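Run folding on both entries below.
>entry_1
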Amino acid sequence: YSRVCDICCSEEPRDRSVFIGCGHSICRACAEQIQLAVLPPRRHPYCPFCRKNSKLVTMVEVLLDEEKEKGPKIEEIIDSTEASRDSYAARREKLIQLFLRGELEEETYTTVYDLHLTEEACARGVLGFRPNDVYDEEYRRLLAALPLGSIYRNYAEAAADVVRRREKRALIERLRREDEKKLVYSRVCGRCHSESPRQRCLFK
């Protein structure tokens, strides 16, 4: 059976994703790219083959010839130079990571993020800068990093989406590199041990 992704034409993608509404599969790199283009980010994408709107999930498949290498954690891939420019940006970056990992509720995250901006504005005001400069700079930074047409309720929500998009792009790059390796996968059914079933089903 072919593993070719019909979007990027990768012949042996390391990971594949499937649209649970229709069963069409593509490589995970293309799946992440499709999800990155969805506005707003909480919506499900449309299948490029049949236009059915549904959730994308990553398939769990077993390698035959070698064990799947553990890729670096996404935090190791992401360039953190932007976060290390000053302590305020670094603190906000850590706060965003906590929120994206689900360790902070949205209301708490938004409140603390706004407090960080206010604290920086006050500190810069003491040094003779206009306090509003902090908000203007944050607005310009977010505007430059987000696609046109993006709508957010506050700076915190927009900043979290900037980091989420940056992580997605880093993940896509890693997946594309991994897809260049030639690997052989098993089609064995884990229940009945049929070695090469013609059709397979996926649990949501």
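>entry_2
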Amino acid sequence: MTVAITALSLVTERCEGTQDRIWVTGVKSSEIIFSQMIVHSVVLIIQISIVLFTALHVYKIPCMGNLIYVALLCFAQGFCGMTFGLVVSSIFVTEINAHQVTISTFYPVLLLCGILWPLEGQPLGMRKITTWLPMTKPVDAMRGILLK
């Protein structure tokens, strides 16, 4: 979610002309990026809280490890998504292009990283590719934290 939210918010500001008005007031680009990261980090913390509460209390998923490590891993992964969203928003000009790129990169990674389909069930060549995907190791680490 953080990839799409970050990318679309900056592209929307650029399309609507809000970003031009901000430039006129003398705001620096580093201040814009920093403020976006703060706002999206707060949203990310709220999302992590909701997901962890739902997973642990509603669905009764056991957590044998430290909950702080689970939250930090989620935050680190979300922060990586925010930076990717910033890259997408700096490359693409229109909202539809940014949305297409975020969706087209997110879903293959989600399907192949081991969340929905186990890595052991994939062909050997595909498994070698999936080890280089950005969500494969965090998913394995999350599974390890929750089960240990």
